[in-house]
Amino acid sequence: MSIQKQRKTPEKEAAPRRRLSPEARRDEIVDAAVTLFAETGFDGSTRDVARGAGITQPLLYRYFPNKESLIEAVYARVFLKSWDPAWDETLADRSLPVQERFQTFYEAYTDAIFQPVWLRLWHFASLRDAEVYGWYKEVVQEQILKPLVRERRAELGVNQGFQVSAAELEAPWLLHGGLLNYGLRMQVTGRADANARAGVIRQALDMYMLFSQNKLSLDK
Amino acid sequence: MSIQKQRKTPEKEAAPRRRLSPEARRDEIVDAAVTLFAETGFDGSTRDVARGAGITQPLLYRYFPNKESLIEAVYARVFLKSWDPAWDETLADRSLPVQERFQTFYEAYTDAIFQPVWLRLWHFASLRDAEVYGWYKEVVQEQILKPLVRERRAELGVNQGFQVSAAELEAPWLLHGGLLNYGLRMQVTGRADANARAGVIRQALDMYMLFSQNKLSLDK
DNA sequence: CAATAAAATTATCACACGATAAATAACTGG
DNA sequence: CCAGTTATTTATCGTGTGATAATTTTATTG
């Protein structure tokens, strides 16, 4: 729909540039593929990818044996780089309240993933093979939700060891899923307000803090 | 992947049946399209739809002017019938506590939509045009979330009139979105346990009841 | 039972797609 | 500045797709 026939200059059609290093060219192809696939899904054509990268379509096959391997390169580009190692430290910093730490984290995290490219590619990928979803589920659970439960326990003075049960993860999953769904809703309806986002995150954390306090005081 | 070359009987290939009423044939085509598109997305071919319906591909064009109109028929079939009018009464029955009413409702509702066909088609549709998503958002907000806020207010003895502000909808949206996300997670990972589902719904409603009580008592 | 309306099939078109082979042009080392 | 390497393009193949026209088959009815 928004892809056009490539008309860089109205007159001269010929593209002047050529002969990049293999690494640079490969990067450009993946860039173009990310952009296209985020719009159209993975059924976007290799010709359109090539057009986006400013090359001819057969050249693509010098860098990727087939379309599937290009798709895998797109996965790697978008999903693997979406976790910032600094976040682990943010979450573990016990000089601040849990709510404050996770507020900071979730604002940064959603800043990274609440973007059309990430959200749409993630959905397209989840629908086409369960592996990507399984990988994402694992990351969220181990890097975000389990730390949340453990840190909250510590804050409330309850020591149940390092293990986190599936039952304890349900509430965090509900809120994390709610935030993800919020991101999709904002993206589809076109609105994307950072202030409102911070408010929703705050409310989600409010709910968890209240719930966990209530739950743990009842268990005593 | 699971679509095969149609081999009803190993020997006799010819399909004996023909000549249905236009309404019946149309229904069969839409059925087949729903099944196929839920698997492959809307890029599933008209030939595979026809094969699933046991007819030849050009016949499809006697009932639908083009593929797009077939897709719209699929929307109508799957999404429009997904609301049971009896649910409105369930939600309004003030002889029961709000939590109990919405527990009953959400178990029935998720029973209807936590199915591969609904969830996958909904995601495919949301990704391909925002209109479907907008329609769904409206239904959820007006039929489920606003009633939830109003009924909860009444239960807590707070009267703020009929209007429900966007701010008040945030918490319900978080939990509803969390449930939707839970459905997707269960579907992708292959697990679908009705007991576990009821438990998650209960927990979501617990969280909302606790949160709304806390919020409204602070506002007083 | 022949005549007729229309449901269904056969045959086919034009085009877009993924992929391959051969030809060309740009950079590099001597 | 020439030769060799290789990045890039041109040309093309086979297949699958959405869609249309012409033909055949089925059921109904006078």
Automatic annotation (TrEMBL), chains A, B:
<dbReference type="InterPro" id="IPR009057">
    <property type="entry name" value="Homeodomain-like_sf"/>
</dbReference>
<feature type="DNA-binding region" description="H-T-H motif">
    <location>
        <begin position="45"/>
        <end position="64"/>
    </location>
</feature>
<protein>
    <submittedName>
        <fullName>TetR family transcriptional regulator</fullName>
    </submittedName>
</protein>
<dbReference type="Pfam" id="PF00440">
    <property type="entry name" value="TetR_N"/>
</dbReference>
<feature type="compositionally biased region" description="Basic and acidic residues">
    <location>
        <begin position="8"/>
        <end position="22"/>
    </location>
</feature>
<keyword id="KW-0238">DNA-binding</keyword>
<dbReference type="GO" id="GO:0003700">
    <property type="term" value="F:DNA-binding transcription factor activity"/>
</dbReference>
<feature type="region of interest" description="Disordered">
    <location>
        <begin position="1"/>
        <end position="22"/>
    </location>
</feature>
<feature type="domain" description="HTH tetR-type">
    <location>
        <begin position="23"/>
        <end position="82"/>
    </location>
</feature>
<dbReference type="GO" id="GO:0000976">
    <property type="term" value="F:transcription cis-regulatory region binding"/>
</dbReference>
<dbReference type="InterPro" id="IPR050109">
    <property type="entry name" value="HTH-type_TetR-like_transc_reg"/>
</dbReference>
<dbReference type="InterPro" id="IPR001647">
    <property type="entry name" value="HTH_TetR"/>
</dbReference>
<dbReference type="InterPro" id="IPR023772">
    <property type="entry name" value="DNA-bd_HTH_TetR-type_CS"/>
</dbReference>
